[in-house]
Amino acid sequence: MPAAPRTTLTALLALPLLALSLGACGYGSGASEDDGKTKIAAGAKKIDGLDSVKIGYFPNLTHATALVGNREGLFQKELGGTEAKYSQFNAGPSEIEALNAGSIDIGWIGPSPAINGYTKSAGKNLRIIGGSASGGVKLVVNPKKIKSLADVKGKKIATPQLGNTQDVAFLNWIAERGWKVDAQSGKGDVSVIRTDNKITPDAYKSGSIDGAWVPEPTASKLVAEGGKVLLDEADLWPDKKFVITNIIVKQSFLEEHPKVVEAVLRASVKTNAWIGENPAKAKAAANAQLKADSGKALPAEVLDPAWKSISTTDDPLAATLDAEAEHAVRAGLLEKPDLKGIYDLRPLNKVLRAAGRPPVDDAGLGVK
């Protein structure tokens, strides 16, 4: 297995129809149930006189920082009298639409839609301002049919969507092994079956797929159904780290309300620290917020292994994003995008310095 990663989250740039279809998912649900911790403290002052900041995220464990920060009231604490208003999304493009429309100001999101939104707007609508999570992607297979990596050849393996993060990662992994697959049809030495994560466990149970390259908690749901983890994508990356969730902001909001952005980033940093210091409480808080947001908590046999495979991080791991884009180009899925300026880590580094911590790097992709 080569040490260098061969994944990318940017293939949506070459798949506009996919972006349009995902955009049809809508803006997601409204604010979550209140657990009593998110209320504005009496006498709290608004930051820059701003009434509220609109924050978006997915009800997914890879967005643990947002889940826990919401549930524990850590964002509201840093925002003082400026109310934190939350919205949830089921697809990246719909969150980008909301950012463009002003329905949210700041969002937790995967790198692919962030890059897609940045490139489609010619670098004018958003910036990545921080990291949030790494890892949480696995190849899970039916152990009766697939006993080794070589056995994947000739089998039916699901990915979430054509051109999405895990789909491209799997296609590139296939290519590294010298196997051939047509990226569009999914046909070749391996049958790549694009299947929504919500129905992938049922597809596995029915035998219509032999495995899946999927993010958590879908991977752990498959394991609960008898699947076996054949490969953890983290093992393909140097230091076993790769970006799975970023924090983005609307550029105009960053320019007009820098102190609010700093407050949200400060809350994110403190939330990640709290998660590290209180893993059991953090896991419970994330699951409680998942239930509030989606109506259903995860069972322990899914939650526990999924939680372990995801690492929260303040570092956006910019170098891995740059590598991902390059791998997409090599795979012939898109023309080389100009990502210079996609990051503005100055507010985050200001927060980190104030906390006595070293700055994080933008891999040469930051604003000048």
3D structure, described in words:
By secondary structure, the chain is an alpha/beta fold. The protein has helices spanning 16-23, 64-71, 74-79, 92-101, 111-120, 165-176, 200-206, 218-224, 251-256, 258-277, 279-294, 300-308, 318-330, 346-354, and strands at 52-57, 83-88, 106-109, 126-135, 137-141, 156-159, 191-194, 211-215, 228-232, 243-250, 310-312. The strands form 2 sheets. The protein has a 6-stranded mixed sheet with strand order 2-1-3-10-4-11, sandwiched between helices. Strand 6, helix 6 and strand 7 (191-194) form a beta-alpha-beta unit. Helix 1 crosses helix 4 (92-101) and helix 8 packs across helix 12. The longest helix has 20 residues, at 258-277.
Beta-strand residue percentage: 15-25%
Largest sheet: 6 strands, mixed
Report helical residue fraction.
25-40%
Number of helices: 14
